[in-house]
Amino acid sequence: MSSASLWRFKQSSVIPGFGITLGYTLLYLGLIVLLPLGALVTKATSIGLTGILSTAADPRVAAALWTSFGVSLIAAGVASVFGLLVAWVLTRYDFPGRKLVDAMVDLPFALPTAVAGIALAALYAPNGWIGSFLEPLGIRVAYTPLGIFVALVFIGLPFAVRTVQPLIAEIEGELEEASATLGASRWRTIWGILLPPLLPGILTGFALAFARAVGEYGSVIFIAGNLPYVSEIAPLLIVIKLSEYDYTGATVIATIMLAISFAALLLINLIQAWSRRRYGYV
Amino acid sequence: MTKEFGGAAALHDIDLTVRPGELLALLGPSGSGKTTLLRIIAGLVEADRGHVFFGGLDATSLPVQKRQVGFVFQHYALFRHMRVADNIAYGLQVRERANRPPKAEIRRRTAELLDLVQLSGYESRFPAQLSGGQRQRVALARALAVEPRVLLLDEPFGALDAKVRKDLRAWLRDIHERTGKTTVFVTHDQDEALELADRVAILNQGHLEQVGSPDDVQDHPATPFVMTFLGQAARFSADIRDGRVLVNGKPVPVAAQRSTIGRASLYCRPWHLTPTAIGQGHYTGTISGIRRLGSIRRIEVSQANGTTLEVEVPLRTSLRLGEEIGLEILDGVIFRDD
Questions:
Q1: Is B11 in CB contact (< 8 Å) with chain A?
Q2: Fewest CB within 10 A of the end CB: N or C in chain A?
Q3: What ipTM goes with this model?
C-alpha cells in the first residue's frame, strides 16, 4: 500500500472495523438526523424566501421567538451559574446525604416534562405554596415569562451540573494552595486558577441547557399561561399552527428556530475553541 | 528563626530552629510528620499549639497569603492554563496595585528567573509541553518570584526518575548557593538529604530525633532510629562492663562511658565488620551471598539462628559462597538498652 494517498482512510488501531463503524455512523446520522431536518427545510422553503420572511415578520411569531430564545438564554445562564455551585459542593465537600443529593440532580432529566410543568404551576400559582407568598409582594411567576424562566432553569440544571463535575474533580487541591502561598487572595484564586480550566465545561453545559430550553414544550406550557405576545413560546405556536392544519406555517417557524439554534450553538462552539486555544490543553 | 510546635495530631513538641541562609532537610519515613511540619511552616496547616517565627516575627496567626513563603509541591501544581512565563509572574501579578511592580519590571524578573532555572526560550510553552524536571524548575522559579522569606520544598524530586533527580539535586544546591535563600526541603531519601543539606533534621512518628550536619548525624547518631534509618546497620546485643563493650564475651574497640554498666545494643555498618578465621572474632557464619557494589563487594553472612549480616570486603577477595567464616567487629555505635 502506498502511504502517500491523499485520503488516509486506513487507520491502524487495536480495535478493527474502522470502515464499518464509519459507514454505520454516516448512515445513522443521515437517516435519523439529516433526513427529517432535510424534509423540514424542504417543506418550509416550498413557500419561498418571501413567504418565510413574512411569517417571521408576523408580530405573534416574532414575539414567540423572542420569548423562546430570550428566556432560554437567560435561563441557561442562570442554570450554569447555579449548576457550577451545585457541582462544586457535590464534588469538593463530603457531607451526609451527598450521594442522595447527587442523584437528585438527575431528576429533571427523568421526570416527564408535563409533570414538572404541572408541579411548578401548582407551586407558583397565586394560591400555591410559593406563589401565595410572592403574590403580596407583587411578583407573579405563574402565567408570565417569569414562569417560563423558572421551568427552563429547572430542566437546564442537570446539564450544567453534569458537564462541570468531572472537570472540578480533576482540579488538584494543591493548585489552590500554590496560589495562596504566592499571595493570591481567595477571589483571585477562584477567578484566575479555578474557573479557567472549568470554562469549557461551563460552556458545554450552557449550550446543552440552552438547546434543551429552546426545544422545551411540556413543562413550559403548563406554567406559562400562553398569552399571545407575552408568554407564548415558539414550540407552542408550532403546535397551534399544526392544529389549524397550517403545516407550512408550522415548518417555517420550526426552520427559523433551527437556523437560530444552529447559529447559537456554532457561536458557543467557537467561543469554546477559542478558550481551549487561549488556555492551552485544558 | 525559631519554630515551635505543639502536637498537631502527627507532631509532638517539635522545637526546630532553621538558621538564616541554610539548606535544611526534613528527613523521615512516610508518616513521620515531615510534610505536616513543612505545611505548618507555610501556613497551609494550623498547629494545635505552638508558634512559628520568621526571624523575630511571630507568624503563627499570619494567613498563608501573607507569610511570603515559596512552596514547591511534589507534583509541581503548575497552573495548566497558563504559559510558563505567566506561571512564574503569577505571584507578582496578584499583588495589590500599590505593591505590584510595573509590567516591564515583572517581565524583567520573569526573564531573570527563567535564566536562573535554565529555561530561557520556554516562556510561551504550556506546562503540559514540558518534562517533569522542567516543570519542577518552573515551579521553583514561580516560588522564587515572590522573593520569599523562606523556600519550602515538599519532596521536590519525588516524582522524577533517578537520572533527573541527580541532576536537579546538584542544580538545586547551585541555586541555593547563588540566591542564599533559607531553604527547607522534605525528603524520605536519606542519600538526597545527606548529599544536599547543610543540616538534616530527622523525624520519626512525629518526634524530632536529631538535628545536625550530615557528618554529625552519620558519625554520632542520637538514637537507634537515626542509626538504622540512615543506612544498613546490624544490631548486636552487648554488655558494658568497666567502660568496655563486650559482644559474645569478647571486647569490641568501641568506647563506652566508664560509669555505665549493663545491657546495650551495638549497631554496626557493613564497613564496621571484617571477615577473619573461624573461631576468631565475635561471630561465625556462612557466606550466603556476594554482591558487587561499585568499587567494593558486600557479602551476606548468615548465622545459625537465621539472621543475616552484611559485611563490606575488598573487590578482590578469596571468599567463596558457602564458606564458613568468623566476623570481627571493628567499630560501631553503642546505645544503652533501657
A1: no
A2: N
A3: 0.82
